[in-house]
Amino acid sequence: MDNYPIKSVTFGGFDKQDVIRYIEESAGKAAAAQQALQAENETLQKQVAELSEELSSLRSQLASLSAERDSLQDSLRQEAASRQQLEALKPLEKEVARLRPDAEAYAQFRERIGAIECEARKRAADLELATVSQLQKTVDLFREQYQTLMSTFSSTADHVNGELRKVEVNLTQLPRAMDQAGTELNELAARLEHSLEHNQP
User: Fold this and answer.
1) By CB distance 3.0 to 4.6 Å, which of 18, 92, 131, 158 could disulfide with 58?
2) In whole angstroms, what is the distance from residue 129 CA to residue 132 CA?
3) Residue 58: CB partners within 8 Å, gap ≥ 6?
């Protein structure tokens, strides 16, 4: 009964109404603490769900970029096949001279495809890295908040259980104190009656 004004009665023990009021207030505080912890837990679960949706979106973007990269690689392979066909025409000087502009255009096209492929790979790698980093931060934050929440809940539960044990002990001792008070009251009544009998004229 730390810092709680439970009055002592005249013949030992505590005032019954103070004890009952203390029990009710302790139960109310415990219920309020549990509700607060539940609300905080629901908030954390909502944040995790939102981050999971964001991660799913990022993965979809990564898949799209991978598909774009695969398409560019297919185009590159097709252009490589075309180049091989052009290589077969090298023995023919006239054909080479005629096809030179096409070869130069192909070289430029290949460079452009290579640049696009490099950019796609870089974007995919950056996106994957950012996604993994964000997910790790989210997991770390959730773990930290969960540990804090469980620590708070455990401390509150221990305190409430301790207070309830104290009240239980006091309630166990209350009948004995009431019996003692009844005995003392009977003795006092007997003395008073005896005194009145001796004082009568």
Assistant:
1) 131
2) 5
3) 127, 130, 131, 134
Contacts of residue 146, Cβ cutoff 8 Å, sequence gap at least 6: 44
Phi, psi for 14 (deg, rounded to 5) = -125, 160
Q: What percent of the chain has pLDDT over 70?
A: 83
How far apart CA 3 and CA 182 sit, in angstroms, is 29
Q: What six digits make up the tokens of 54?
A: 């964001």
Instruction: Give the residue among 189, 178, 200 at the shortest CA–CA distance from 11.
Output: 178
37 vs 42: CA distance, rounded Å: 9
CB within 8 A of 4, min separation 6: which ones? Answer: 18, 22
- Residue 89: phi and psi, rounded to 5, are -90, 0
pLDDT score, position 107: 77
pLDDT at 95: 61
**What's the sign of the alpha-carbon dihedral 154, 157, 163, 169?**
negative
Q: How far apart are CA 36 and CA 187, in angstroms?
A: 53
d(CA 158, CA 130): 42
Q: Is 125 helix (H, G, I), strand (E, B) or coil?
A: helix
The CA distance from 4 to 183, in Å, is 29
Distance CA 19, CA 171 (A): 8
- The per-residue pLDDT for 1 is 44
